[in-house]
Specification:
Elements (H helix, E strand, L loop, with lengths): L37 E9 L5 E10 L9 E10 L3 E8 L12 E5 L2 E6 L19 E5 L8 E5 L4 E5 L4 E10 L9 E9 L6 E2 L1 E6 L4 E2 L7 E7 L6 E8 L4 E9 L12 E5 L13 E2 L5 E8 L8 H7 L9 E3 L6 E2 L2 E7 L8 E2 L1
Parallel strand pairs: 9-12, 21-22
Antiparallel strand pairs: 1-11, 2-6, 2-10, 3-8, 3-9, 3-11, 4-7, 4-10, 5-6, 13-23, 14-21, 15-20, 15-24, 16-19, 16-23, 17-18, 17-20
Length: about 350
Amino acid sequence: MKRLLAVPFLLSALSACPGPDEPTFEPWTLEDLTAEQGLSVRVPEFEVPSGVETQDCYFFQMPDLNNGQPYWVNRFHTAINPGSHHLNVFRVNTIHGLDPALGTPMQIGNLSGTVVYGKDASSECWKSPNWADWPLVANSQNSSPENPYTDWVLPTNVATKFTPGEWLMVQTHYVNATTQSAPFKGKVGVNFHLYRGTDPIELGTLFATQQSLRICRSNPTPTYTGTCKFPPSTVTITAANGHFHSRGKSFEVYTWDGVTDTQPPEAAKFYESDRWDDPPMSTGMNIPSTEGGGIWWNCNYQWVEPPVGCDAVNERDPQKAGDCCYTFGGIVETSEHCNVFLYYYPKVAREEIFCN
């Protein structure tokens, strides 16, 4: 998600020699997997006009790759055009306003699916309560022009389980406005590589948010904290990343004993990022949780004058305080996030994890 300067040249001329201040981008390629290798998902290329922030939700059903039986995936390989704010993959669960059946039919690579477009905040694809109980599958925030790929291989004998016919959602968020730009078209791809071992340990995922955010002119440097507690057993954390918008200055995740109400010691920190526009994803970790413990995370902010003006920010403040407060929401220009993505094993039931 590098911040790039938009330039007035034809996208069809990307191979031409750029000027000294023009960004360049070599179009990404991903291998098209056979059914014996796994599954390739391709979101069709789309325009991101100047001044637009769009979030679209693409739905498809997992194909039958194992004679009607469940199958396992142990490698996720993503590629994302620059200008992306995030790419999230969720399993569809309880249907509220966001319904695959109500989407526009679309081919998503070789898969028949649907899309719910999110050209403005009134779309169901912007409303996070719609997927509040949809389990996370994978995510990527890396769309650097120099390296638009995230190639994540799970630990030995760890894999994600899928069932033929289950619905997945690929959610893309692109921004071409003041805080972030998208000089190229939007486009993403995800390869799901099949696991070929035996008796895998099932990967667990956690997507949690801290929503009581107020980064205000009168309180410009707040810190917000979240915690999640696992059941009375231990798990191993293998990957993590954090997510906030441009007022975010540092994101920290710690192992936590599940009891104390003070920040864990520095020795317990296992993830840190000071990048809102290109936060790293840490993989290959081997971090054991404490018995009955979990994670603690911090989001540290610095208020700045909004390029779009305080009126637009105040309009989104549910308290209508008139203090130019950035509050929780998906719109990059006028709101903030404090989201943690965590991957661990063995998987535990979602209802046994308690987050604050």
